[in-house]
Write a structure and sequence with these properties.
Layout (H helix, E strand, L loop, with lengths): L1 H9 L3 H33 L4 H50 L2 H7 L1 H26 L2 H15 L4 H45 L1 H6 L3 H53 L5 H42 L20 E9 L9 E9 L3 E6 L5 H7 L8 E6 L2 E2 L5 H5 L2 E4 L8 E2 H5 L8 H10 L3 H6 L7 E2 L8 H13 L5 E5 L7 H14 L4 E5 L3 H4 L4 E6 L2 E6 L1 H7 L1 H14 L4
Parallel strand pairs: 3-10, 3-11, 6-9, 9-10
Antiparallel strand pairs: 1-2, 1-4, 4-5, 7-8, 11-12
């Protein structure tokens, strides 16, 4: 999974990768050349008391060190740009993939998990790329070159390398192997803490209203402690790596001094060669440690890459047709023909055999008990879901054969839970129409019965709207969402229980203002109050996902028992008469 993700995105960075490799190779070779120069100075300059020799080779060492510093800085700079570009591209891919998801895929992953995957998981893989480009790419050059140069200094001492390198590699590999399941649990528990935090912030009013702060604090504490415990477990395992590496390096260094001193006394090697061998040994083992340290990042990055790839490789259930229709006739006709919908894994369909036709200038109202499938039916029109049987057509064309822009440009939807974006009143209204003028905005607000309270807000159209519209009431939020749909002047209006937060008087005024402005459009209204829909051209009555009645208010009163029960229940509660 990690290899596939890296190869997919890094293909565009081949040039930068080769530049980093060259810079790291030059840096490594310069670092390997310094001990040899140092050995020559000690063996020839110091021993022979040749000051000129010392100055000459000392100057060369300074130049090599300067070159090493330059290439080190350059490789870090280029590597950082590569890693940051990688992170940007992966986040961009994930964002566009999630935007293409239908509501089914979003529900499958869950919003908290998707947020974690786009942020934390990408950061883990990006960190691996950064460390690889800035530190690890030079390690193989140092390790391999160091082995050859150490053997060149003294072949007898090279047996120490044959023992110390495998010991260090095996010890660190055992530690890293224990870290993989820990980091897998880590990402899952971060998902959980994001989910709880998101619920608590969104539902803060409910929490306070029911005095559930202690319960929610306990929920967060449990999730937070789980993340802390997992992080500590991973941290303890990581903490073992450096002491283990240091222990092996120090024992190896002692062995080099011990056996090297004996060889010097036997005049089998020179002092400078032993110092150079000791330096090469340290460089080799540090390279092995750096490589295994990258391997410590590898488990968590691998888990994160799997989670990223899971999102990228999940196809949306709403597929765009190859030869999608982009142009339709001007007269809107919405038709359901034997439509059914079945959630994956559900025992029974949510909707079954729904058929009706609504033409421009007509209003279809949908009523039914909670869970009867009203919202699901409305969501099938803009293809938030795709039907599992039957056909939903617009102007005689199956919506699955329409280009998304051609469909969405004709639909104005006000969802059951209206959502406003952080910004201003004007910025929220222009979501419906980007080039809307102030006159158009005020006209839409006037129809939606929102003009008075918007004018009373500081700044009017420039008044601040908090994220989700939390700084306005539920009724104001609904009316602003209705105005956002109206300003678009679409051919199909979808009002999914959009009048529930309005009082009867405001509801009546809004419906009266809507009528002349939607005379050339199809209007689909999901409502709970009979008073809202009794003037509709057609009323669709749903029960258990089935159509149990379709007709006008008077026709349904005469022959639809379910509708009669709805009317009677509201009449008894509100004192209304049918």
């Amino acid at each position: 999974m990690l290899k596939s993700l890296l190869s997919t995105v890094l293909a565009k960075y081949k040039k930068l990768i080769w530049i980093v490799i060259v810079f790291q190779a030059i840096q490594a070779m310069a670092g390997l050349y310094l001990p040899t120069l140092n050995a020559d100075i000690i063996n020839n300059g110091v021993v022979k008391h040749d000051i000129g020799y010392i100055w000459t080779y000392g100057g060369i060492m300074l130049l090599v060190t300067f070159a090493q510093v330059i290439f080190s800085i350059s490789s870090v700079y280029v590597g950082s740009r590569l890693a940051m570009g990688f992170g940007r591209d992966v986040r961009n891919m994930l964002f566009h993939q999630v935007n293409d998801f239908s509501s089914r895929e979003v529900a499958q992953f869950g919003a908290p998990s998707l947020i974690t995957r786009i942020t934390n998981d990408v950061q883990q893989v990006q960190m691996l790329v950064l460390m690889t480009c800035t530190l690890i790419l030079g390690a193989p050059f140092t390790a391999i070159g160091g082995v050859f140069l150490a053997m060149h200094q003294d072949l007898g001492l090279s047996r120490i390398l044959m023992v110390s390198i495998p010991i260090l590699a095996v010890a660190l590999s055992l530690i890293i192997g224990s870290m993989v399941p820990t980091f897998r649990r880590m990402q899952e528990r971060i998902d959980r803490i994001n989910e709880i935090l998101r619920e608590q912030l969104t539902g803060i009013r409910i929490v306070r209203a029911f005095v559930r702060e202690p319960v929610e604090q306990e929920r967060f504490r449990v999730a937070n402690d789980a993340v802390t415990e997992t992080a500590l477990t991973g941290g303890r395992l990581q903490a073992l790596m450096f002491p283990t590496a240091t222990l092996v390096i120090n024992f190896s260094s002692v062995a080099v001094v011990w056996f090297g001193s004996d060889r010097i006394s036997q005049q089998l090697m020179k002092p400078g060669s032993m110092i150079a061998f000791l330096t090469y040994l340290t460089q080799i083992l540090m390279s092995v440690m750096m490589t295994t340290w990258m391997a410590a990042l590898l488990p968590r990055a691998t888990v994160s890459a799997e989670r990223i790839q899971e999102v990228l490789h999940t196809p949306t259930s709403v597929v765009i047709a190859k030869n999608a229709v982009s142009k339709l006739s001007q007269t809107a006709v919405l038709e359901f023909n034997g439509v059914g919908f079945h959630y994956p894994g559900a025992e029974a369909p949510v909707l079954q055999d729904i058929s009706f036709t609504v033409r421009a200038g007509q209003t279809l109202a949908i009523v039914g008990s909670t869970g009867s499938g009203k919202t699901t039916l409305v969501n099938l029109i803009p293809r938030l879901f795709d039907v599992t049987s039957g056909v939903v057509s617009l102007d005689g064309v199956d919506v699955r054969e329409l280009a998304p822009e051609a469909l969405w440009s004709r639909v104005g939807i006000v969802p059951q839970k209206p959502y406003l974006f952080s910004g201003t009143v004007a910025s929220n209204l222009t979501y419906g129409k980007e080039d809307a003028s102030e006159d158009e905005m005020w006209a839409a607000l006037r129809i939606a019965q929102a003009e008075d309270f918007v004018r009373a807000m500081p700044g009017g159209l420039d008044a601040t709207i908090a994220q989700g519209g939390s700084n306005v009431s539920g009724g104001q939020r609904q009316r602003l969402a209705i105005a956002r749909a109206l300003i678009r002047q679409p051919e199909i209006y979808l009002f999914d229980d959009s009048f529930s937060a309005l009082d009867l008087a405001t509801d009546a005024r809004l419906r009266a203002a809507l009528a002349p402005n939607t005379s050339n459009s199809v209007v689909v209204v999901v409502a709970q109050r009979v008073s809202t829909i009794r003037e509709a051209d057609q009323i669709l009555v749903l029960e258990g996902g089935h159509c149990v009645g379709l007709g006008t208010h008077d026709e349904l009163l005469a022959d639809c028992p379910t509708y009669q029960e709805i009317v009677d229940s509201q009449a008894s509660v509100n004192g209304e008469v049918s």
